[in-house]
Write a structure and sequence with these properties.
heterodimer, A: alpha/beta, Rossmann fold, 7-stranded mixed β-sheet, 6-stranded mixed β-sheet, 17 strands, 19% strand, rod-shaped, B: alpha/beta, TIM Barrel, 9-stranded mixed β-sheet, 10% strand, binds S-adenosylmethionine, binds iron/sulfur cluster
Chain lengths: 530, 388
């Protein structure tokens, strides 16, 4: 059954033509919150309705109102009959069914005024006369709240309930809550006027921040959902009459056997909550949910309100309930990422090493092509390299490939050789800690430089050997294979074009892959052709 | 509309300094649920092709990846994955081929230009970047050229870096990449994006330069420019989410499926670090408010490009407040103007210049009021408005 209590026995359309009655759209802050609070909200709504019906039956209030789906009318009637209560239709409005994703689906929501049978004529009379003041009186609004709502509606307020209450509350300043019921709720969230000063919500230049906090605010924020201790629309957060009625209602609920539901309601009212209205959209955020309501008025006004407890309690990852585990928080400038901020941006501002003009000398159309090839070689050989050892690049250029090899595992020590002095200088700048292992020269001098026991890996560009006369080439190969346990080879774009494939290049250089490479490979472990 | 399958939620092997997921990632109190049957059941229910997303999807164990791809191939004949590329290994490429997986790799450029996609240390970042570049190269050599997402920021598109980025994209074109998606940086408070943001003039300059580059590279397309041009011509049947009246309470452009099969919203709107669940129904409060709110108050009133742009992605809203228009407004506006001028010069009529523009706006806002939506293509056809 889906009955939502909103104690506003006003005919739909008049005298509050633009008062938004439809339930706001709601989004839960995680599945734990949803699973925990959906049934609790149901229980709270049922309990509040029961309390309201009892109060009507006892004559404590003369009129109230509920929203009801067509399918629930008979259930409502069943609740009214034994209590000698009557329901008068106040009108209907179309709204999307609460849980339907279908944009075209709408259901009719009926609004009924609820009244004790013998007071029926009073209500009918007031409705017929559009006597707002009288209607609110029948609904037991305290005089101050009655006047405030009449004034707001006359001024053309077309805002959701929460906004109305807030508009009024902002003018009123902080409340002091002495009632045991409410101060218990306040204490649970750590809220209260004392901590108000610490609340600040960066919200742009137009923001008006009001740090006053009271359960009545929370009451107003959740009231559109039918979750409220105060059944009427309170005139301000400081309204003592509303406060007393709210406390009385909570106690009445507990006494009537709804202690658990009232405890849930108290917990919800103690949630840190924020409310803001901007360009005609109102949004309420609590630790458990957020909700949004539209208003036809596009005021520039931006009013953020924030329960002082919100920032602290959310940042601590806690909240009013264990279900808060699912809640996530804006950790602001204390976040571990922010700590790395300056370092990251500084690094990004540094010069790049993407300015090497020598790509063509190494057989590539651009530096990007050259670098990407070197990255591809390391990617292909990565598994082999992760075992560690010593690695020499026999045409190391600016040392980029060696830098990538080093990054594979700390267990690799890298060496470089290159025929270009300028490139070796670049490589030394790139890898200053390996400066002494980066040498200008060619393969002929390799043996003399090799560490004791030779290299574990040597990386060869076979195309560099092709221009050499035959005896010298053979000698170079002997030197390489004599100095390293595993010889790896790769090809430049130019060589691939010239020789058709890595295999073609290897054959031309008197080499063969130790295992047939995959079609897309551009590197392989090699051995000399017999 | 796309379905993003996030098997491990926000979990990722790297920590891009600007990642919009950093807030929810750091705030997560409990490990996300993981259930292969749960995911498959949710995908079955949605019945639409999905993209393996994350966090980083390649952190999923290989058998499960294969199961998901096998399901995608059987149901939809195609698969897709969006990855940072650093974890791609040879056996993944084999899976990609067998299961017809379209691969998207996020890379902001070569070497240092990709430094914001931070992997924990300079060395690890260099390695991750190089591995992603290598995998990209490898995929191209295997005839599986991926698409690339480049996010534009201070680290890759300011000053001289823009020319380096352009040179790199030329190279991507040379090796066979055909699609590049450009993101303007979405600025959040819970990560390092603030320090990386480009100003409007720099963003516009970067986009204009890249657009110029596109005209020099036959076969390479930046999705963004084509989409914006199509929007001006009311051809929005397949445009991306940012042009589609997104609602941050129920992001329609992106529907997420989490590792336990739960439905989620697009993470770009999780501004406070809270991953709100999707509301059951969509709303158009934002678009209606923007349409009526003066521009100096963060709205879009009077803008002739409103029909196309609709305030753009709420994840990029001014001040991080989804009720305001995109903070990239000036950039989009400038680009729409360029495209509009070119279309007009070519004898076409962009919707922004149509005498019936107001009628289209009235119709669309009326639909939104009723909780409904319609593509510009169908709306203009219905109203008999000529665009194109
Ligand atoms: C969140 S990632 C998830 C998939 C995968 N890990 C990847 O990097 O592609 C999806 C895309 O969002 C982009 N992205 C993340 N944060 C962003 C931001 N603040 N602004 C713009 N794009 C962003 C990433 O660069 C990436 O292309
Ligand atoms: S929030 Fe932005 S990215 Fe996400 S669905 Fe909406 S428009 Fe798309």
């Amino acid at each position: 059954m889906s009955l939502r209590l909103l104690r506003l026995p006003l005919a739909i359309g008049a005298p509050a033509p633009r008062l938004q009655l439809a339930a706001p759209r709601l989004a839960w802050a995680g599945r734990v919150m949803q699973a925990t609070w959906t049934p609790r909200f149901e229980a709270v709504r049922a309990a509040l309705l029961a309390v309201e019906l009892e109060q009507l039956a006892q004559g404590a209030i003369s009129a109230s109102a509920v929203d009801c789906l067509a399918g629930d009318v008979s259930a409502l009637t069943a609740l009214l009959r034994p209590r000698e209560l009557a329901a008068i239709p106040l009108g209907a409005y179309a709204a999307a069914p609460p849980d339907s994703a279908d944009p075209a689906a709408v259901v009719l929501n009926y609004r009924f005024a609820l009244v004790r049978r013998e007071r029926l004529p009073l209500l009918v009379e007031a409705l017929a006369a559009d006597d707002l003041e009288r209607l609110l009186q029948l609904a037991a609004f305290p005089a101050c709240c009655r006047a405030a709502l009449v004034r707001a509606l006359a001024a053309g307020e077309d805002l959701p309930l929460a906004i109305h209450a807030h508009g009024a509350a902002s003018a009123a300043g902080p409340a002091s809550w002495d009632s045991p019921a409410f101060s218990a709720a306040g204490a649970a969230s750590g809220s209260g006027p004392a901590s108000a000063a610490s609340s600040a919500l960066a919200a742009g230049p137009a923001a008006a921040v009001n740090a006053a906090a009271s359960p009545i605010e929370a009451n107003a924020l959740l009231q559109p959902l039918g979750i409220a201790a105060v059944a009427h629309v309170p005139c301000s957060a400081a309204c003592t009459a509303s406060q007393a009625l709210g406390c009385e209602r909570l106690e009445r609920g507990s006494a009537a056997g709804h202690a658990q539901a009232m405890a849930h309601l108290r917990a919800a009212l103690a949630w840190p909550a924020s409310y803001s209205q901007r360009n005609g959209i109102a949004e309420v955020q609590t630790a458990a949910l957020r909700l949004v309501q539209e208003s036809a008025r596009r005021e520039p006004q931006l009013t953020y309100r924030w329960h002082p407890a919100a920032a602290a309690s959310i940042a601590a990852g806690g909240g009013a309930d264990a279900a808060v585990a699912d809640r996530t928080a804006d950790t602001g400038s204390a976040s571990p990422i922010a700590a790395g901020h300056s370092a990251g941006v500084a690094a990004i501002a540094a010069d790049t090493d993407l300015d090497n003009p020598a790509a063509a000398d190494y057989g590539f159309a651009s530096l990007h092509a050259w670098r990407m090839r070197q990255a591809a070689v390391v990617w292909e050989q990565s598994r082999r390299l992760r075992g560690g050892g010593s690695f020499i690049d026999l045409a190391c250029g600016d040392g980029y490939l060696l830098q990538l090899v080093e990054a594979e595992t700390r267990r690799l020590s890298v060496f470089g050789l290159d025929r270009s002095e300028a490139q070796i200088a670049r490589a030394q700048r790139r890898l200053p800690h390996r400066s002494l292992c980066l040498r200008h020269g060619d393969i002929a001098g390799l043996a003399a430089q090799a560490p004791a026991g030779g290299y574990d890996f040597a990386l060869l560009r076979p195309e560099d050997l092709l221009p050499l006369p035959e005896p010298e080439r053979r000698h170079s190969l002997r030197t390489v294979f004599g100095a390293a346990r595993q010889v790896l080879a790769y090809a430049s774009d130019q060589a691939l074009r010239r020789h058709g494939s890595l295999g073609g290049l290897l054959t031309a250089a008197g080499l063969a892959a130790t295992r047939t490479p995959a079609a897309a490979d551009i590197s392989a472990e090699v051995q000399p052709l017999p | 509309m796309s379905v993003e399958l996030r098997p491990l939620g926000d979990r990722c092997n790297i920590q891009c300094r600007y990642c919009y997921q950093e807030g929810t990632r750091h705030a997560a109190a409990a490990a996300p649920r993981y259930s292969l049957p749960g995911m498959l059941a949710a995908l079955e229910e949605l019945g639409e092709p999905f993209v393996l997303f994350g966090g980083e999807a390649l952190l999923v164990r290989d058998e499960d990846l294969e199961t998901l791809f096998a399901y995608g191939l059987e149901q939809h004949g195609i698969n897709a994955i969006q990855t940072n590329g650093a974890l791609i290994e040879a056996h993944h490429i084999d899976l990609f081929r067998r299961y017809r997986v379209r691969v998207g790799i996020s890379l902001d450029g070569p070497g240092e230009l990709n430094l914001a996609r931070w992997a924990g240390s300079a060395g690890r970042t260099r390695r991750a970047t190089a591995r992603a570049e290598a995998a990209l190269d490898r995929l191209c050599r295997e005839g599986l050229a991926p698409s690339v997402i480049v996010t534009l920021h201070r680290g890759n598109a300011a000053g001289e870096r823009l020319a380096l980025l352009a040179g790199w994209i030329r190279h991507l074109h040379a090796i066979g990449v055909q699609r590049v998606r450009l993101h303007l940086l979405e600025v959040d408070t819970h990560n390092d994006s603030q320090g990386l943001r480009l100003n409007d003039a720099e963003n516009l300059h970067a986009l204009r330069s890249l657009r110029q580059l596109e005209s020099e590279l036959p076969g390479l397309r930046f999705d963004l420019f084509r989409e914006m041009r199509d929007m001006l011509l009311a051809r929005d049947a397949v445009s991306s989410c940012v042009w589609q009246a997104c609602d941050s309470y129920a992001t329609r452009g992106v529907r997420g499926v989490e590792g336990g099969g739960e439905r989620s919203n697009c993470g770009r709107t999780h501004k406070g670090g809270v991953a709100y669940l999707a509301a059951p129904r969509r709303g158009y409060e934002r678009q209606l408010a923007l349409y009526a709110t003066p521009q100096e108050r963060g709205g879009c009133a009077g803008c002739r490009f409103f029909l196309m742009c609709k305030g753009n992605c709420p994840g990029t809203a001014l001040e991080g407040d989804w009720r305001l228009r995109s903070e990239h407004c000036a950039t989009w506006y400038g680009l729409f103007e360029d495209l509009e001028t070119e279309l007009a010069a070519a004898g076409e009529q962009p919707l922004s210049q149509s005498p019936r523009r107001a009628a289209c706006e009235a119709e669309l806002t009326a639909l939104w009021q009723a909780g409904l939506d319609e593509s510009l293509q169908s709306l203009t056809r219905r109203l008999g408005v000529a665009a194109a």
